Amino acid sequence: MLSDHQTIMDALRRIVQALRQSSAHSEQDSNVTGAQALILKHVAAREGLSINELAGLTFTHQSTVSEVVGRLETRGLVQRARAQGDGRRCELRLTDEGKAAGHGTMITMQERLMQALHDLPPATLSQLADGLDALIGAAGLAEEPPIMFFETQAHKIGDPK
Questions:
Q1: Does residue 157 lie within any of the structural domains?
Q2: pLDDT tens-digit readout, 60-72
Q3: What is the 3-state secondary structure (H, E, C) of the chain?
Q4: Overall domain count for the chain
Q5: Is residue 51 within 8 Å of residue 89, measured between CB atoms?
Q6: How close are the terminal C-alpha atoms of the chain, in Å?
Q7: pLDDT tens for residues 28-87?
């Protein structure tokens, strides 16, 4: 019988490995990371999303989504445009290149995990959130930015910000 410690570490290893493999497949197939593929899929499904709406759909902080969208924009895959009727609102649209890059991409591991979280009973989801929050705090990672999986970050863990 496995100890709780080993069960948790094995679960984390499986998740990280699956995310790494999914992102590698995405980069091989479409030359975008798994996180970028996730963004492309959401924008393709609902053209005109705002960064805030996209952050909500991906369970990600707005600033992190904005960075990923910025990379996609630099590559010519996504464009931002002012909304008609509300000049304060910025909407996202795929370019033709973005449509081609996102077309036919596999379901990402992030999508599978997000669906699995959605399918968990509320009590289990709450316990999982509390447990992971406690783990992150105990490991001294609470101040680290929760960037999207396998995207680059401005600083390395443990480095001053």
A1: no
A2: 899 899 999 999 9
A3: CCCHHHHHHHHHHHHHHHHHHHHHHHHHHHCCCHHHHHHHHHHHHCCCECHHHHHHHHCCCHHHHHHHHHHHHHCCCEEEEEECCEEEEEEEEECHHHHHHHCCCCCCHHHHHHHHHHHCCHHHHHHHHHHHHHHHHHCCCCCCCCCCCCCCCCCCCCCCC
A4: 1
A5: no
A6: 42
A7: 887 888 889 889 999 999 988 999 999 999 998 998 999 999 999 999 999 998 878 776
Whether 89 maps to a domain, the answer reads yes
* CA distances, 57 to each of 15, 39, 41 (Å): 20, 9, 11
Q: Is the dihedral of CA 126, 128, 129, 130 positive or negative?
A: positive
- Least confident among 62-76, 81-95, 127-141: 81-95
The full length of the chain comes to 161
Cα–Cα distance, 102 to 108 (Å, whole number): 12
Domain span at 90: 4-138
pTM: 0.77
Query: Is residue 154 situated within a structural domain?
Result: no
In a domain, 66, yes or no: yes
CATH of the domain at 61: 1.10.10.10
